[in-house]
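Comment thread on ticket #2218

A.B. wrote:
> Attaching the input chain for the structure job we discussed in standup.
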Amino acid sequence: MVQSVRTFFHRLYWLLTLGFALALGYAFWGRNYLTAWHQYLDLAAFIFIVGWVLVNAVLLYRHHFQYRDLQMEEVDQMDGEEFERFCVYLLRRNGFKHLQTTKASGDQGIDIIGRKKKKTVGFQCKRYEAQVGNKAVQEAYSGHTFYQCDEAAVITNSVFTDAAIALAEQLDVLLIDRPRLKRLMRRLPS
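C.D. wrote:
> Ran it. Output below, let me know if you need it in another format.
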């Protein structure tokens, strides 16, 4: 259901973009040749151009400010997929480039791959209510090898067990727990 609604709006957006392109073509070149239709085509071109600009302004605002004034309590309520999207947004706001998500199932332990300072980092995202254990660290470590990343990291809204912290130190896996996540969230727009 959600995918079909998304597909509908995606197609509607591209129809609006096509109308925008035709309206621009008419405004710059077609007005000289379609003089009998000026009163109708001028209004239609205006509506398509203004509509396209407004829709893109809303999409741009939503893209850049969708997590504006987000609190940790709201992060705790996210599902796993939304938490991954939030982590991509958060990493982008904290200097990571070329961020991509891996497929949802069979991701080999890495959810997000990003570049920062010429290093590729593979991230495992865990939105948990309990403590995060060794398994997440092991998955991130093996996944970063599979995807040929320079470093591995685990991001969580929770905290790590002592065993997970010890394993991460031994395997050189970066751990981003609740307090570090809060510090990263300071770069979000407010």
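A.B. wrote:
> Thanks. Noting for the ticket: The radius of gyration is 23 Å.
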